[in-house]
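Notes from hallway chat w/ T.B., transcribed later so I don't forget. T.B. wanted the structure written out for a chain they're using in a teaching module, and asked if we could keep both sequence and structure tokens in one place. Agreed to drop them here.
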Amino acid sequence: MSRKLNKASAFAVAAMALTIVFSADGSGAAAKARQAQAAIQEPISQDSTLVTMPQAPAAVVEAPVVDVAPAAPAAPAPRAASLAALVNAQPQPSDLSRELNCLAGAIYFEAKSETLAGQLAVGRVVVARSKSGRFPDSYCGVVFQRSQFSFVRGNSMPGIAKASRQWKNAVAIAQIAHAGSWKSQAEGALFFHAAYVSPGWRLTRLARIDNHVFYR
């Protein structure tokens, strides 16, 4: 009988020990669960580093390629049908530069009573001289060079009737001669004289136009 009691006591003690152990484990698991819940609910401090997962790059949408036709080249200015038409197309500036004034003055005094072709030939001589390296390199320098043009008096020109048709033609011819927009019949000439004189120059004669003979 005492043996049975002893066994029963031993079983009771063992059962109590197991209950204590299981209770301790349960309490530990519950504690760990509560700690995990608290960690989840605890706000991230400002010192915490926020790690952002890289995102896939956005798709690049390229603008469609559009073929643009090249601009058409500017059409060349139409050539005048005649020297007279080109003269009529020239502007009449109210204030000429000194150089163009000298060129127009030479044309006016040397050839104002001649044809437009004769006036252009005189103007082109002045232009050619200024570019030759053998004469002054400006129109005024050429015109006022000593003993070259008989109308020059004391390094100046006589008065000009600037309202006249002859002066307007001279201004237009001066612009054409300066631009080289119409070739003279004596292109390249550097010298000329009145047809009624014979200076005996040993030069290459190019042409006679109206009352002048041209040479180079």
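Follow-up for T.B.: Residues 1-77 have pLDDT under 50 and may be disordered. Might be a good example for the class.
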